[in-house]
Write the structure tokens for this entry.
Amino acid sequence: MDSLDFRLRFFIAIIMSVLFIGVVGFIYLDGLSVSEAFYLTVVTISTVGYGDLHPLTLEGRLFAVFVIIAGVGSFLGLVATVTELYLSRRERKSRVQKLNMLVGVFFSELGTRLMKYLSEFDTNLNEIREWLVVDEGWSEDEFIRVESILKNYSPHIDMKAVNLKELHSVLFKRRGCMVRLLPVPALMEHETFTERLYAVFHLAEELSVRESLRGLPETDYDHLGGDMERVQSLLIREWLEYMHHLKSAYPYLFSLAMRTNPFSNRKSAVVQ
């Protein structure tokens, strides 16, 4: 629970307490009925002014002063908190939309191509491929279920089949995309995507710092394979989350992403 939610609940609790205490107090001090005491308490807190009903005794008037101070203060606090909470949530929604735009840029420029390339050498992909063929019929529960399945998925890259020079070329051509995204402050709020972006950047760095990508020792191939498997696992999960977002927020973008799904054997950008 963040501070705004806590403050909202706190002021609501205070106002409910003042209402209860006010009703009980006016019943006891001025001999009012429950409905009259509730009406008088609300009128007192709202400071609209007394009309046909007002405190009759000195004790009742002194008690009304207490109700005004406690009630008005907590009511103003509640109004201020609700306003701040609304503005905060609107701002948060705007930030999330901008973050998802950056995620979309990454997949358009590099992410989808990289997943497609690594998928050709992922010997375990057939275990989950059917779960990655997203279509317009998927419900909220379907996305949640597949996201849960992917948390336990471990890719296995066949390093004997990978052309490291070609992979380096795929990453190098789109390196500018990562360089532009990494310094963006807004991405720091999207910790999971930042982690995935760093994993891709690290793989690109590993391939760039070697003088040659041929004739490497078996231990180095295993090391690079581990980096590729990390990237593949993280990107698949990020991609599914992004598809989930597109389906709920941007159906037309989801339509294209669905038709160019890198895991589907029947993908085609052409609308049939």
